[in-house]
Design goal:
Elements: E1 4-7, H1 16-25, E2 31-38, H2 46-49, E3 78-83, H3 87-99, E4 104-109, H4 114-117, H5 129-139, E5 147-155, H6 162-169, E6 177-183, H7 194-203, E7 208-211, H8 217-226, E8 232-235, H9 237-241, H10 245-252, H11 284-304, H12 307-322, H13 330-338, H14 342-353
Parallel strand pairs: 1-2, 1-8, 2-3, 3-4, 4-5, 5-6, 6-7, 7-8
Length: 355
């Protein structure tokens, strides 16, 4: 079975606007996991609460069946993620999403932020396998749910915590388990622990997805070597800093991935990958493609956000990742960061893109 490539849920970054702009420019993805939304009990304003997900975008092809093109074992094109620790409330939100066509919902057990963890949400639940067990036992008694996947870390503060909660996860019919090989207390700092990750992945009874510091081909090779039976890889900061990373993986490892992403810019999916030249990071061709993406993203944000402050906050966040591919343009990136208005921002972008 080929591996799939899924874009990670970066809260506040990979929102609806960003996802649409990404797919219009780059593609090469098989699936996107949306940033988490808090599970809620019945709400009178569901469209507002789930505004990042409802209505589903046309490209999401929610509920798509294998005979319509989705390879067996692959997640749907767009997977919502829910944060919560009450199974009945989670089930209610999951049913709402299912009624709107979503075939899968992911339970966030990995969010590292202390404000979340101290409420026994995200990675704050990992030291408490008995609570995870009660949650899942009750959840799978609920009717009319979409399929459920889970995203975890190795633990909250101890890399051995996975041994207890993985035993619990193995007892339930999960679609997949995405493992980020860090601790919650690490946030996104320090090295990934591939030794513990390999042990955790081997012990998992479900399809395993790797997530964590895949910034290039060598990083993928290390992760794949640590667990050769991967079902998929989730790309986060690496793909946001180099949007051609999914295409690079497909071209370098044609035996591991489909020749093209299920989500491609072309409506027919006829985007050449194998053998096609992929721009080097920071090259003139790379800058040209990234420039088209940034212009589209900028236009989209100006259409839906009011005032320069909101728009520039979002654009500066996007450029914060892209800047990692442009170490020789620190001065221009700093100028962009100081921009207070649209004209200042546009001038700084033109200098970065050399246009």
């Amino acid at each position: 079975m080929p591996l799939y490539i899924q874009l990670a849920p970066l809260h506040g970054v990979t929102n609806r606007v960003y996802r649409d702009a990404w797919l219009a420019s780059f593609g090469s993805l098989d699936s996107i996991m949306a940033p988490f939304v808090l599970a809620v009990a019945g709400s009178s304003d569901l469209r507002r609460h789930f505004k990042d997900l409802l209505p589903p975008p046309p490209w999401a092809a929610t509920g798509v069946a294998p005979e319509k093109g989705l390879p067996p074992g692959f997640p749907p094109p767009l997977v919502p993620q829910l944060m919560g620790n009450e199974s009945a409330v989670f089930a209610e939100s999951a049913r709402i999403l299912r009624e709107n066509g979503y075939a899968e919902v992911n339970w966030n057990l990995g969010c590292p932020y202390p404000m979340v963890a101290k409420k026994f949400r995200g990675s704050g639940l990992l030291p408490h396998p008995e609570r995870i067990d009660r949650f899942l036992e009750s959840l799978f008694l609920e009717p009319e749910l979409p399929r459920i996947s889970v995203k975890v870390r190795l633990g909250r503060a101890d890399a051995a915590e996975w041994r207890s909660f993985m035993e619990v996860l193995n007892r339930y019919p999960l679609a997949s388990v995405t493992v980020h090989p860090r601790l919650g207390t690490q946030m996104y700092r320090g090295s990934v622990n591939l030794e513990e990750y390999s042990l955790a992945a081997e012990s998992c009874a479900h399809p395993v997805v790797y997530n964590g510091d895949i910034t290039g081909l060598a990083a993928f090779a290390r992760a794949a070597e640590a667990f050769p039976s991967l079902a998929g890889v989730m790309l986060g900061r690496g793909a946001l800093s180099d949007p051609f990373l999914p295409a690079r993986l497909r071209q370098a490892y044609p035996e591991r991935f489909l020749s093209r992403g299920f989500l491609d810019p072309s409506p027919t999916g006829e985007v050449p990958v194998r053998g096609a030249p992929i721009p080097l990071r920071g090259s003139p061709e790379w800058l040209e493609a990234v420039g088209l993406f940034q212009d589209d993203l900028y236009r989209r944000y100006r259409e839906v956000l009011s005032g320069p402050a909101h728009v520039l906050d979002k654009m500066k966040e996007a450029w914060g990742y892209l800047a990692q591919s442009l170490p020789g343009k620190r001065r221009e990136i700093a100028e962009l960061g100081r921009a207070k208005g649209f004209e200042d921002f546009e001038r700084a972008v033109d200098r970065i893109l050399e246009r």
